[in-house]
Specification:
The chain is mostly beta strands. It has one helix at residues 2-21; strands spanning 27-38, 46-48, 51-63, 66-80, 85-100, 105-121, 126-127, 129-143, 148-163, 168-183. The chain has one domain: Porin, CATH 2.40.160. It contains one helix and ten strands; from the N terminus they run αββββββββββ. A hairpin with a 4-residue loop joins β8 (129-143) and β9.
Length: 184
């Protein structure tokens, strides 16, 4: 399937790109923890529609105003009233516009593409699906020193599930995270 190949290509690119640029100035990597809020209504009614999520990020900062970033993160889980669930993850590649406010504090905006994978369990109306589409986000970063920083961010993703009987159903997910980054 084309979406599965896209997801694998993005993952492979991230895994091999970080070591290639590890000695270059501007490389960073980090970990995020947060809450994913998928907006998917299930046939049996939604019991819970958020979940703690975790992710990893790797990027290259070209100058104080621009970076390119790859990220793998959970985007949330929906559990219905009869124990069925849909859980989704995203792999994204984004351009990051950065506005330094002073030596220690930046705000940023992100725009790029994300490949999402939804896994369905116990819901006969839906099947697993992949989706590739636009993603965007906003955030702030506080630099403790040249190597360590703390990030707070919000990212928006679109995912989908296949509907039994034909077609698909898209849903949005907003992910709010806090994390740390190490700048090589």
């Amino acid at each position: 399937m084309l979406h599965t190949r896209t997801l694998k290509l993005l993952a492979s690119s991230l895994l091999f790109a970080v070591p290639l640029f590890a000695s270059a100035e501007g490389v960073y990597g980090g970990l995020n923890l947060g809450i994913g809020m998928p907006n998917l209504k299930t046939p049996n009614g939604v019991d819970k529609d958020s979940q703690a999520v975790a992710g990893i990020v790797a990027g290259y900062k070209f100058n104080p105003y621009f970076a390119v970033e790859g990220q793998y993160t959970g985007i949330g889980k929906v559990t219905d009233n009869v124990n069925g669930s849909v859980k989704a993850d995203a792999l994204s590649l984004t351009a990051v516009g950065i506005l330094p406010l002073n030596d220690a504090f930046d705000v940023y905006g992100k725009l790029g593409v994300a490949a999402t994978k939804s896994r369905v369990s116990g819901l006969s109306a839906y099947d697993d699906a992949t989706h590739t589409g636009a993603t965007y986000g906003l955030g702030a970063e506080y630099h403790f020193d040249k190597a360590i920083s703390m990030r707070v961010g919000w990212d928006h993703y679109r995912a989908e599930v296949d509907v039994n009987g034909g077609g698909s159903k898209s849903f949005d997910s907003n992910v709010t995270t806090i994390g740390v980054a190490y700048h090589f």
